[in-house]
Amino acid sequence: MPRLSLVIPVYKVQGYLAECLDSVLGQDYTDFEVIAVDDCSPDGSGAILDEYAERDARVHVIHLTENVGLGRARNAGMEKVQGDYVLFLDSDDTLTAGALRAIAERLEAAGDPEILVYDYARSYWDGRVRPNQRAELLQPDGPETFPLSERPKLLDLLQIVWNKAYRRDFVLRHELTFPPGYYEDAPWTFCSMISAERIAVLNRVCVMYRQRREGGNILKTVSRKHFDVFDQYRRVFDYLDAHPEFAQWRGPLFRKMVDHFLTILDRPDRLPADARAEFFHRASADYRARLPEGFQRPGGGRGHKYALLEKDAYAAMAGATAAVKLRKAVRTRTRTAVNRSKRSAMGVYYQSQLRLPLDENLALFSAYWSRSVSCNPAAIDAELARLAPHVRRVWAVRPDAVDRVPEGVRYVRVGSKEYWAALARAKYLVNNVNFADSVVKREGQIHLQTHHGTPLKTMGLDQRKYPASTDMDFDKLLERCDRWDFSVSSNRFSTAVWERVYPCSYVSLETGYPRNDVLVNGTSDDVRRARAALGLADGTRAFLYMPTHREYQPGFVPSLDLARLADELGPDVTLLVRGHYFYGGSAHVAELRRSGRIVDVSGHPRVEELYLAADALITDYSSAMFDYAVLDRPIIIYAPDWDIYSAVRGTYFNLLQEAPGAVATSQAELIHLLGSDEYRGPDATARRDAFRRRFCEFDDGRAAERVVRRVFLGETEPLPFVPFAERSHAPAPAQALAAVERA
């Protein structure tokens, strides 16, 4: 039997769940079990739980068949616990290092109390940490254990269950369970605290209480569900009625009840406007029905609100609230005027266009800061033309890139009047990066963020941990991300990262990457055309070398001696070299073109065609590996500076251990791999298969169609995915040549 059992209810937390579980399983104290309850979560949380359970026998997963809510999910977990003590942890919060050892040692020192109360701190999305403002109540003062009557101020702590350890026999003896609905912590916490004869405290922060920027707290959702609070306090007072020995707590719990009612009334993010009067009258009725004899109202403004509740004086309360709102409105209008003044820098013309109606049949596309017509936006553009030809499609293109716009593509030059008009009036804005800070998100506009790679390196808010890699203004970043309505994802791994590092209120679209559809649907003719366009003769092996950007290098200097590599590989091999788009052209590579076996494809407009043409990919840390894996062709990781790169930029997994194929850390190793065919041997193939199943799970050739149907056509029933084992992909060059010869 474990000493401690942690019950973790899980619902829509895939971006935070791994951090939560790692904080538990990484504790230096090991005598515990985890009961994780998947509350029928619609995201990838259940699969994440199963992966952890496979790796660690202490993790036990319960998959509920319907969503039952936080309280009942905890009940399901409690039915399975085996430990002496039950602890609760919300699945987006974390334990601090050494927390379980400190809890276990305190329990032993206090002689196994019925309840141990420990401290927590609030951790904010922007890196701030705020300590518990009532932490002084947890200072050791007096005997090791005590009843609540000796330290009644403990009721002034935030009344939640996850800052306490409960002895399991105590829970069973008092038949403690969680009720359904909002505010389910109240009956459990109050009833357990007044019932315990032996309480102990631990003045140590054991839990980091995550304060999400967006979402994560249903109590901050405008809903009639906040009326559940009346049922929860009915349960508290029913408990008091059934236990006359606890009569002394009627006054303190009445105060807690009224304070809770007033908090809900005071918060604008709780009750619908048309339900406020009804809630007030219900609260007033409960106030009068449960008012203890001799109760003294608090003083000041709070006491005035108590008096209004007692009199059921909603009009007076509403009038006072309206006055507060008026003062806030004046401040808001002042801020709006300042913001308008700032926006005047965008130009009078843009402002005039923003006042015109949206064009419901106009979509504006951009990719890579308007450098090209490419990537996911281009694939969506093509599918939109097929499925919804009534929607006009326009691209934003920088003036220095208009000569590279494909024939037939309609575009506007960035900065022109036409550009600002399209930004202001297009119903749909599609980009694989963010639009400029100056862009205003209009009501009714739909921003579709497609991204442009699966993240190996840290992104978004995670980059704060690696300041040497960026000088980004993270507040501005999140303001840009606030404009997103949809975020396209190629796999559950990416979804979890995006939702955590860009914590805004968009909808994740797990569709696969539209730009990869051609890698699934491509034919032998497509492969041959792509090779012919690059001048690759039949029978020539082509290796595509795609290194990524390094913040600590000012320009593109390949870490390979390309001329030597070409010589070693022999005359039947051609190297296609593509530098990262951040670097532009490369004089170094240009010097090697004369050999004829090194082709600089850095300026090629469509990387997907390079993928089709190449027999194998050589890369380091580029997201190209995730896309190329769709083709199920060999991938070689050349990582001579992994230690430096991972330390400077940070990564989400160890690429050397979880590579999509063979790994080389020196040029000599790389030449050996390529010369021995080890790069396409059984070990490399097995690695690639595991990688593909993890990162190419949604890429079945219909990603663009899924996006268009959901975003532009409003269809909510998603297209089913082709089972992984049944998927095809574009043939390898040798297969494409053989197909032509057979024909």
Automatic annotation (TrEMBL):
<dbReference type="InterPro" id="IPR043148">
    <property type="entry name" value="TagF_C"/>
</dbReference>
<keyword id="KW-0808">Transferase</keyword>
<protein>
    <submittedName>
        <fullName>Glycosyl transferase</fullName>
    </submittedName>
</protein>
<dbReference type="Pfam" id="PF04464">
    <property type="entry name" value="Glyphos_transf"/>
</dbReference>
<dbReference type="InterPro" id="IPR029044">
    <property type="entry name" value="Nucleotide-diphossugar_trans"/>
</dbReference>
<dbReference type="InterPro" id="IPR043149">
    <property type="entry name" value="TagF_N"/>
</dbReference>
<dbReference type="GO" id="GO:0005886">
    <property type="term" value="C:plasma membrane"/>
</dbReference>
<dbReference type="Pfam" id="PF00535">
    <property type="entry name" value="Glycos_transf_2"/>
</dbReference>
<dbReference type="InterPro" id="IPR051612">
    <property type="entry name" value="Teichoic_Acid_Biosynth"/>
</dbReference>
<dbReference type="InterPro" id="IPR001173">
    <property type="entry name" value="Glyco_trans_2-like"/>
</dbReference>
<dbReference type="InterPro" id="IPR007554">
    <property type="entry name" value="Glycerophosphate_synth"/>
</dbReference>
<comment type="similarity">
    <text>Belongs to the CDP-glycerol glycerophosphotransferase family.</text>
</comment>
<keyword id="KW-0777">Teichoic acid biosynthesis</keyword>
<keyword id="KW-1003">Cell membrane</keyword>
<dbReference type="GO" id="GO:0019350">
    <property type="term" value="P:teichoic acid biosynthetic process"/>
</dbReference>
<feature type="domain" description="Glycosyltransferase 2-like">
    <location>
        <begin position="5"/>
        <end position="126"/>
    </location>
</feature>
<keyword id="KW-0472">Membrane</keyword>
<dbReference type="GO" id="GO:0047355">
    <property type="term" value="F:CDP-glycerol glycerophosphotransferase activity"/>
</dbReference>
